[in-house]
Amino acid sequence: MAYWSPYDNNGGTCVAIAGSEYCVIAADTRLSTGYSILTREHTKMCQLSDKCVLASSGFQADIRALQKNLDARHQIYQHQHNKKMSCPAMAQLLSNTLYYKRFFPYYAFNVLGGLDNEGKGCVFTYDAVGSYERVGYSSQGTGQQLLMPVLDNQLQSASPLLLPSKESATPLSESEAVDLIMDIFASATERDIYTGDAVEIVVVNADGIRREVADLRKD
Amino acid sequence: MFRNQYDTDVTTWSPAGRLHQVEYAMEAVKQGSAAIGLRSKTHVILASVNKATSELSSYQRKLFKVDDHIGIAMAGLTADGRVLSRYMRSECINHKFIYESPLPVGRLVVQVADKAQVCTQRSWKRPYGVGLLVGGLDETGPHLYQNCPSGNYYEYQAFAIGSRSQAAKTYLERKFETFMTCSRDELIRHALFAVKESLQDEELSITNCSVAVLGIGEPFNILDLKSLQGFIDSLEEKKEAEVETVVADSEQAGADAEAPVAEDQGDGPAPMET
Amino acid sequence: MAMFMQQQTDDSSFKKNMLFRGQQDQSSALPSVGFVPAKSPTTHTQYPYVTGSSVLGIKYKDGVLIAADCGGSYGSTLRYKSVERLKAVGKSTVIGASGEISDFQQIMRYLDELTLKDKMWDDGNTLGPKEVHNYLCRVMYNHRNKFDPLWNTLILGGVKNGVKYLGMVSMIGVHFEENHVASGFGNHLARPIFRDEWKEDLSLEEGILLLEKCFRVLLYRDRSAVNKLQVANITAEGITISKPYALRTEWEYKAFQNPTQGVEGSW
């Protein structure tokens, strides 16, 4: 008899890239369990505020619970402060929310992207129990290992090891970043069975939020 | 010295079948500056008269957002009102968490009323000293409710509570039949006219009133000062068009001002029925 | 002490003696902290006893169709043959359950209470399929959080305000919406057929034929499927759940009688 587990990995890949005045967040739309596909059009993204988008892969039920929790907390914040949460504030809240459940963690691997208080692109990347870091770009999920070296190679960002530290946002233009994301998702789909069907790309900039969807291989 | 034996705690009945403490709480609502609400087929408008307690202070906020689809206006002890608004907000958030759909207004109003009722039946509690006008939108359209400290609640087309609310009510009673088909902006102007009636000798201005709107396709929002000023300006033009002014109101406002302290032998309806 | 023990041979006095020893131990060496052995966690609810097999659901032109058979298996024994696994929830929603039958019946008690209270408000607001689905997701997820799962995969469909809704929840709370869904074996055998043949504007007849086609495949390939099924039809007009009926099957094919004949290396 198969042993019951409270967790499942529903797969998927998330990427976020920060530019000096934009942020691109992307995730594929496949939802899997084991070798089966549950659905081909399930969004892994969640718009938490007008300048802040969360992309998560891992266990879908935990991810949804986490998103709902953040939504509720954000609503309370808005009641109390009469404004939307900034992206760095949301990043801290997400970390605290994950850490609070570290003894029965949300099996969720998150990338949070958006604009910071100066209007610059920002990306925050997490582990399941709340460790997080602000970076220039990041990827999470089942295709992470395939994508990350390509991002390291292509984004021409300053190394985070440089001293004195330099801005880690990519010098790429917004459209170059979007094109790169389409390409790396097409590549990840070739080798990762949990990534595919379509990639959803959200661009946050001073004009607001724009969403586009591009098809990927469905096999 | 005469002393009322039946008003020292909430749970003691008077021989005439009244609960004096509850009625006193109802009086507290009438002491607060007025709050007004009205609705059309598509929108609900809430408005309040803002009164600063001193030249040096700001006024108490009386309009509160509960959720995108519910807002409240209060009269009476605003401190109590804030407690209720916090309760209402968390009920809305909880409902959205479970069902991913907005809490129907009427159900929230009943929950608040039940909460108020408990305070009228426990010796160690005190009734809320605040009246609420709850405006909201649900599957069945826009609604306007009134919540009382007594635990009673009523649904209205248009209503006003608080000091000199009678003047506003008179205005609303005269006009409410036209409200259902009003546009959003017309409805706001009606709200401002009603507010105007409740202002004593003051001129209507952005400093002494606030207006909130919610409706189909429009989440709850309190008008910013600029658009409020725009509506007040448009009022002046409208007034010149219809020179009809209310005469009877000044008398009624006077009658309302002397708060009728409940007498035990009173044979009219208990004031808790508004 | 030892002497005393040796003298005692009959059972009752031996017990008395043990008690005496216990008392002495408590009062001497250790401070009397009552040691309660940790209760081992409940695990018997983490596997099913009586299970129902696949449930299939599709959207079609005028609404949603959900189908399930009436079998209840106790392991590999077909223990129950008239289990109703399709149930109406309120006026616009139907749920179908595979997995533990008793857990499904418990879920129905939750839902019946929910819809009763909703009805009692009598205020023109009603819970639609979306609300019921979200409620169920919370129920399933909360149970998994307590390591006490409701051992089901639920399929839920409905129509409200002209909007069709079809979704699914698993025993650990994974949930989604789709145009066609299937639980259990259905996810392997029926969904590929749905992906080939499903379209937005299927008529009622075409929809039922598609479900029956998939069921026939399940009947041939899934040993716990039985040939006694019900189909629920949810439209804007309301809900109808059919009486159980059987599909015509053909078992006389040569290949069925001796499936491995001529296959090299088989017996």
TrEMBL record, chain A:
Main localization (coarse): cytoplasm
Top-rank taxon, per record: Eukaryota
GO biological process terms, semicolon-separated: proteolysis involved in protein catabolic process
Keyword check for Kinase: no
Subunit details: Component of the proteasome complex.
InterPro entries: Ntn_hydrolases_N, Proteasome_bsu_CS, Proteasome_sua/b, Proteasome_suB-type
Protein name: Proteasome subunit beta
Protein task: Non-catalytic component of the proteasome, a multicatalytic proteinase complex which is characterized by its ability to cleave peptides with Arg, Phe, Tyr, Leu, and Glu adjacent to the leaving group at neutral or slightly basic pH. The proteasome has an ATP-dependent proteolytic activity. Component of the proteasome, a multicatalytic proteinase complex which is characterized by its ability to cleave peptides with Arg, Phe, Tyr, Leu, and Glu adjacent to the leaving group at neutral or slightly basic pH. The proteasome has an ATP-dependent proteolytic activity.
UniProt record similarity statement: Belongs to the peptidase T1B family.
Keyword Lyase: no
Compartment(s) of residence: Cytoplasm; Nucleus
UniProtKB keywords: Cytoplasm, Nucleus, Proteasome
A GO cellular-component term linked to this record: cytoplasm
Automatic annotation (TrEMBL), chain B:
Subcellular compartments: Cytoplasm; Nucleus
Region of interest (Disordered), residue spans: 243-274
Primary site of residence: cytoplasm
Keyword DNA-binding: no
Residue ranges crossing the lipid bilayer per the database entry: none
Positions of the Proteasome alpha-type subunits domain: 6-28
One GO biological process term: ubiquitin-dependent protein catabolic process
Keyword annotations from UniProtKB, A to Z: Cytoplasm, Nucleus, Proteasome
InterPro entries linked to this entry: Ntn_hydrolases_N (IPR029055), Proteasome_alpha (IPR050115), Proteasome_alpha-type (IPR023332), Proteasome_alpha1 (IPR035144), Proteasome_asu_N (IPR000426), Proteasome_sua/b (IPR001353)
Gene Ontology cellular component annotations, sorted alphabetically: cytoplasm; nucleus; proteasome core complex, alpha-subunit complex
Gene3D superfamilies linked to this entry: Glutamine Phosphoribosylpyrophosphate, subunit 1, domain 1
Family: Belongs to the peptidase T1A family.
Subunit structure, as described in the record: The 20S proteasome core is composed of 28 subunits that are arranged in four stacked rings, resulting in a barrel-shaped structure. The two end rings are each formed by seven alpha subunits, and the two central rings are each formed by seven beta subunits.
Function: The proteasome is a multicatalytic proteinase complex which is characterized by its ability to cleave peptides with Arg, Phe, Tyr, Leu, and Glu adjacent to the leaving group at neutral or slightly basic pH.
Protein name: Proteasome subunit alpha type
Automatic annotation (TrEMBL), chain C:
Keyword Nucleus appears in the UniProt entry: yes
Keyword Cytoplasm appears in the UniProt entry: yes
InterPro entries: Ntn_hydrolases_N, Proteasome_alpha, Proteasome_beta4, Proteasome_bsu_CS, Proteasome_sua/b, Proteasome_suB-type
Pfam families: Proteasome
GO cellular component, one term: cytoplasm
Family: Belongs to the peptidase T1B family.
Example GO biological process: proteolysis involved in protein catabolic process
Native source organism of the sequence: Ceratopteris richardii (Triangle waterfern)
Protein's UniProt name: Proteasome subunit beta
Protein's job: Non-catalytic component of the proteasome.
Main location (coarse class): cytoplasm
CDD domains linked: proteasome_beta_type_4 (cd03760)
Keywords, alphabetical: Cytoplasm, Nucleus, Proteasome
Cell compartment(s), UniProt: Cytoplasm; Nucleus
